Known about the structure:
The structure holds two protein chains of two kinds.
Chain A: H1 3-42, H2 47-62, H3 65-86, H4 91-97, H5 104-132, H6 136-144, H7 149-179, H8 191-202, H9 206-232
Helix pairs in contact in A: 1-5, 1-8, 1-9, 2-5, 3-5, 5-7, 6-7, 7-9, 8-9
Chain B: E1 4-13, E2 16-26, E3 31-35, H1 42-49, E4 57-62, E5 65-70, E6 76-78, H2 81-90, E7 91-94, H3 106-116, H4 122-135, H5 151-163, E8 169-173, H6 181-196, E9 200-204, H7 208-213, E10 217-222, E11 225-230, H8 232-238, H9 242-252
Parallel strand pairs in B: 3-9, 3-10, 7-8, 8-9
Antiparallel strand pairs in B: 1-2, 1-4, 4-5, 5-6, 10-11
Helix pairs in contact in B: 3-4, 3-5, 5-6
Amino acid sequence: MDWESIKKVTGILFEYLPNTLKLFAVTLTFAIPVGMLVTMLKKCRFKPVSWLTNLYILIMRGTPLMLQIIAIYYAIPMLKANFSKQGTSGWFASFINGIDTRSESYMFTALCVAFVLNYAAYFAEIFRGGVDSIPKGQYEAASMLGMTKTQTFVRIILPQVTKRVIPATSNEVITLVKDTSLANIIAYAEITMKAKQQMNTYSSILPLFIAGLFYFVLNAVVTVVFALIEKKFNYYK
Amino acid sequence: MAILQVRNIAKNFGELKVLKDISFDVEQGQVVAIIGPSGSGKSTLLRCINQLEKADSGEITVDGTKMMYKGENGKTVYAPKKDLRDIRLKIGLVFQNFNLFPHFNVLHNITEAPVHVLKMSKAQAELQATALLDKMGLSGKEKAYPCELSGGQQQRVSIARALALKPKILFFDEPTSALDPELTGEILKVIKELAKEKMTMVIVTHEMAFARDVANHVIFMDEGVIVEEGAPEELFGNTRNERTKQFLSRFNQ
Lengths: 237, 253
């Protein structure tokens, strides 16, 4: 490949960078709060809820994200076909039938659902580890000072958990940047998908190398951001 | 009436009987030391009075309010939540390993509860905290974080934190066990100061100097029962109880 083609390929990948970033941003925005919710469900004293949550985490962490993407993307059209064949009705059938699988946004929504469900499971385990690592004495001290359970959690426990989960969270976010490439399996137009096309056009692996540089630079930024956040929390041990 | 009344407290951890029929009184202004070998149940007793553990049966009355008592059917009843909370605000506890909030500076550790629990104004709480720190010999440490302080300094901050809620009784759970022998003196001095001001205190301790120098009443516990109690001169000077003698002999060598 000559210099001109390299510039051209880089330009094309740049055009599709927003699609990669969109998936990354939406996943991060929703997976963190959903992960916190999952942590709470897992810690629920009503055992069946806790067991179901464990099962969910087990499946999400125990099977490949790629399979989950494919399953969620194709599940709805297949269910629809099945429902119409068997004439199933009811709220669930009408809900599924209401989803327009041919619309522009369907693919992106399916991807986001798969990514958020998967990443929330990992975040939930990180947060649980963080909450469990806070010494019992912190709860006891807060309770002796007359603080309510909510005050204790929000003012005493959560800030300390946040500091403790930063390194593990940074790991997860770096992985997420790279995992967005899995979306190419259902032909979502992101960087890896486009790089593969360019590879065929030019019969060269250089486009893949350029795509790799994109991920590398993104993760350099993520690393710097997390280093800054860590520094911000460094005022106490 | 005694400010703290404990009657027939019993507590089991499974098969293990940690507390067996414990009764004692603490009068206003009294300094009580609870001594005894490890595993004698002293800390558990303190935790039961402070609502950090639940005793199985017995009665506890704090400043005239019943915290737990025997109900009509003979079962042990706990006071309604509101009463339990009121009682909790009347007592303070100083922990063995301080349990300061690491993410707050010294001043914030002390003002947190007055501001968010008692709804005191921030300015007033800070004024009070500064005065308390001065009393603890920690002036100038307001902006320091707990990790920047020595163990003795941390323990003094935690005493100030407890005092900020103006408790009627202050409990200490082995306040010097996590400290160098050299730093024990700092805490002893503070407790002596508080005793002079007629602060009611109950101190669980391994430190016999504490019991001898500051307490005006000593309780000796072993295997979940109170073996002997009395004035320190009596207990340390001329106990007739064989078990007490045996325990004290190790410290008098």
